[in-house]
Amino acid sequence: MPTDGSFQAITADRLKSWSRCQKQYEFQYVKALHWPTDTRSFALGKDIHKLLDYQARGLDVTQVVQTASPLIQQMWAALSDYPLVTMPALRSEWAFHIDLDHDHDLTSGLWLTGRVDRIVWLEQQEMLCIVDWKTGTAVPKDPENDWQTQVYLYAVYEARHQLALPENITHEQLCFKYVEVPTQKQSDQKQPIQIKEKTVVYSGEKHRLAKQRLLDTALKLQNSTEYVLPKRCPDKYCAYSSVCGI
What we know:
The chain is α/β, with parallel strands linked by helices. It has helices at 12-20, 22-30, 40-56, 62-66, 70-80, 83-86, 147-158, 204-223; strands at 8-10, 89-99, 110-122, 127-135, 174-181, 196-201. Strands 1, 2, 3, 4, 5 and 6 form a six-stranded mixed sheet that branches.
């Protein structure tokens, strides 16, 4: 990774913001106008992710769960016997840094970065599975074309040697699974939680298209000086809706 200040991190969140609204991207990532946020909104998801990470590393989380809130206990009860949780994890909370220019004659300093919740090997299907826990948030409406799906699948395949994967592993042996663990109202917490799963299978053609889309969009992020305001606001929860001028 470059140390001369030329490094620019391209994340799934940045790509999503750009695709959703260029003006939102400008406020958030160019002008760095960050509004105060209520961290309590993310507390549940962080707690569940920590438990999943501890469990993946072979730690006994029994006592931690016993002192947690009833909702966390219920969510953990649903997850603790779930197949993707019980099988051995090849990686948990795996951080990646992929040089987008590594096979191009470019010096833009664009690096794809992120963190994968879990990577497991599905023995029966002979597939490598990227798992993303959705705790309190829904699976994307179009998961196959979602930036997170494409970024993570692309990154894992590009880092296959770093991950010590078999030399002959193919694109078609990769898949991405969103695992949604919905939260419940207090009045419904006596009912078991129904975990939902959505799978996207990779391919060589998808990898080629993702690579081109990533490079094209990342270069736009790096070089743009004007940021187009859409005709309609695409994000009803946008923190900049009162100042964007839409």
